[in-house]
Amino acid sequence: MTDMVTSSFQYFFQAVGAFFVLYLIGYASFLFFSVAVGTSTLYSARRRNILKNELRDNYFIPVSVIVPAYNEEVTIEATVKSLLNLHYNIYEIIVVDDGSQDKTAETVRQAFSMKKIRRPIHRRVPCKPVQAIYVTEKLKVPVTLITKENGGKADALNMGINAANYPYFLCLDADSVLQCDSLEKIVRPVLENSDVVAVGGAVRPSNGTKMKDGRVISYHMPKKLLPAMQVLEYDRSFLASRILFDKFNGNLIISGAFGLFKKDVVIAAGGYDASTMGEDMELAIKLHVFCREHGMKYRMNYAPDAICWSQVPENLPDMMKQRRRWHIGLFQSMMIHRRIMANTKYGPVSFLSYIYFLIYELFSPYIEVFGVVTMVVAMLLDFLNIPFMLLFMGIYIVYSAIMSLTAFFARVHTIDLHLALRDVIKAISLCAIEVSCLRFIMAWVRATSLLTYRKDKNRWGKSRRKEISYK
Amino acid sequence: MGSNVGSEILLYIYGAVCVSMIAFNIVYNIMLGHGEKKLKQNSRRLEAEIYVQIHAVASGGEISADHMNLLKRKLYRVKNMLTLDDVLNRIEGDSDAYADGAPTEKYMESISHVIVGLSDTYMNRDNLQAAFFAYFISKHKIWSKDELEKLSGSMMKCLKKDSFYCKINAMQALCALADDADIIRALEIESRSVVPIHEKILTEILMDFNGDHRGLISELWEDFDNFSQGVQLAVLNYIRFKSGEWKDEMFSIMMDESRDKELRFSCMRYFAKYPWEKARKPLIDFTLTEDETKWEGAAICASAISSYPGEDVNDALMKAVHSRNWYVRYNAAESLQKLGAEYENLLDIISGDDRYAREMVMFRLEEREMMQEGGQLL
């Protein structure tokens, strides 16, 4: 009997071990390919720019920049000022105040001398009613402020879409600032190919950045450890995996912080879903589904040189709230569109992108937590080859850390950004901690996020905002 | 035992990948730094040499034979072409520093045969280098008649390459070389392209045509039906920005129901910019169409007829403001505002039962009030 129990445990741990080896081979291979493809794409883009293979002259398509805001009185003025500094000719700015409890609307009204007007809005996608509309007179471009009943970020974006005058809209978070060339760069894929219906930009943590007149004048890794680790994480995500997915039109996320969309296609697809927390991912998948089901020739691109600087949480509670929200949003988006899984009609989006997100994003927290628990149990039952395990984990951590560093160093080839020696040292020091400790903490946070799904599904939580250094 | 060995092998493989990536990062960044340093050193020598020759030519001298030979050797490499381009741009950017303007023109005239001699070489290289050569031709425009023919041929070759930037830079170069027949040929090639240039870009490129626009437009009309629909649209938009002399041709397209609707819309916008009595009634009729599938044309015409002041237009706009289509109402109200309709003229709408029409008109009246107070239209 004891032998039977012992051999059962042995088989179980061997099976779990084999599963984890396969799981980690899959992830490590993906990481390697994405970093290799991402860095080589950036190096090619640099050579292309040097050899004047770029749109040098002023080619513009009209864009409506939509800024949904909820309790953003600290950052909204700097965000709108950064938008007024864009080197772009034809655009408008629409700030949608989603029933803020603070002085967001008042800040915008006073900062930009706005006046109330009864402007009709063409409601093509559903959203909560308008309370008031304000406009400016004498700024570089039209600026509109719409205050409305609270309905969530997706609802605010839908209001912005309804109010937009131009055929393309850009969604931008209210705690983010753009560089002076960001709009010009994110629009470029649309000019290169008129089948493009959405373009995602690169989001970088702005903690530690100073900007003036739309240019970064000072950049350092954030002083605090948590945002510094997020810099590595964002670089890995934005400079690696998104470039890889872009190669086969398989991006499932167009960042909600900075994404350009063709308005008519979004409206035809139904706009943002106000019942989800991950409205950016839900819209991106919805656009894939809509275009494929209607036999439309389309592309959703990623522009790695179109940069948006966004604040990241500086303390663990705020970061946990954010990741919990992201994971619930991921779950909702994957569930709403689960019919595309392993469905030949949807091509690589189904077989590659959806399956990757399912295993390595949605299920990964549970897999990783299960892995840790199993390891502890195996150790207690003396089934664990500890030296081998330590070697395995060590190699895995070093491997992931090196991939992160490769993606981080690829930014050397980004125009306008230089690395100081202390930033390099900080990055090297933190990368191993980021891929091990922080990753496992976030795995636990994400794994438990769905336990309170019903209670939290439409809650945002409060994040502390810092004033953006923008002159 | 077997699985342990397998796992160890796997670990060694990933360990080797780690070491390779570290080596790659270190070596590549050293090479990049070293390469950039070497490039800068080489560039400085060539730069200094070019500066000396440019100033010699500016002072009435001639380019030395040694310099010509140097250019023939060096400009085969694209990095040296980049250096030359950089020097020329810098001098041209600093033209205020020179009494007779930037001396680059005389220098370029003297070395043009060297550049032209390189065209076949660059066209047979990769797309990036071919596109750069086309950019260079478009930027530095001093060529003799014989050279123009040779360069046109190279640019046609560049236009056919499977690269967006080759096509853009080649089109720009052809517009800089300013031969009408070449532009027509280029547009015919572009019409057959699988991934066409965006019509906005094409229009902007045509706007930069370095020759006689009137002559080019005449030729474009002759060959108009040989172009694809996208190219036709770009051409119509270009003509709209350049000249009001082609009303008959535009009218004919606008009234032809077999034509693509985007082309007809472009013609409607043409008559908004260049009012023509013959177009008045058709524009009013399009505005008031009851066919809901034609709302786009109705909306454009509701805006266009603001260029045709008169009772008939006012009456048409008063009706259009009640349209079932939001955009037609919006544009009609805007046109009424542009034509100076006052509160008293709009009383019927303001006190009427149509809430949507009332909202539109009130918005425009408020907007005008704001404009008068602040001095800028929204």
From the alpha-carbon coordinates, what is the Rg of chain B to the nearest angstrom?
30 Å
CA-CA gap between termini of chain A: 75 Å
Overall spatial form of chain A: globular
Number of extended strands of chain A: 12
Q: Report low-confidence residues of chain A grouped into runs of 5 or more.
A: none
Q: What's the total count of β strands of chain B?
A: 0
Going by helix content, strand content and strand pairing, the class of chain B is mainly alpha
- What is the N-to-C succession of helices and strands of chain A? HEHEHEEEHEEHEEEHEHHEHHHHHH
Content-based structural category of chain A: alpha/beta
- Using the CA coordinates, give the radius of gyration of chain A: 23 Å
Residue share in helix of chain B: over 70%
Oligomeric state? heterodimer
Query: If you average the pLDDT of chain A, what whole number results?
Result: 87
The share of residues in extended strands of chain B comes to under 5%
Structure description:
The complex is a heterodimer of chains A (471) and B (378). By secondary structure, chain A is of the alpha/beta class. Helix content of chain A is 52%, strand content 15%. Chain A has helices spanning 2-50, 76-84, 104-111, 153-163, 182-192, 225-247, 263-269, 279-293, 316-336, 347-362, 364-380, 386-409, 421-449, 453-456, and strands at residues 63-69, 91-97, 115-116, 130-135, 143-148, 168-172, 176-178, 196-205, 209-212, 215-219, 258-262, 299-310. The longest helix of chain A has 49 residues, at 2-50. With 378 residues, chain B is mainly alpha-helical. In chain B, 74% of the residues lie in helices and 0% in strands. Chain B has 20 helices and no strands. Chain B has helices spanning 2-58, 65-74, 78-93, 104-117, 119-123, 127-139, 145-159, 164-177, 180-191, 199-207, 213-222, 229-242, 247-255, 261-273, 277-287, 295-304, 311-320, 326-338, 347-350, 355-374. In chain B, helix 13 crosses helix 14 and helix 16 packs parallel to helix 18. At the A-B interface, helix 1, helix 5 and helix 12 of A face helix 1, helix 6, helix 8, helix 10 and helix 18 of B.
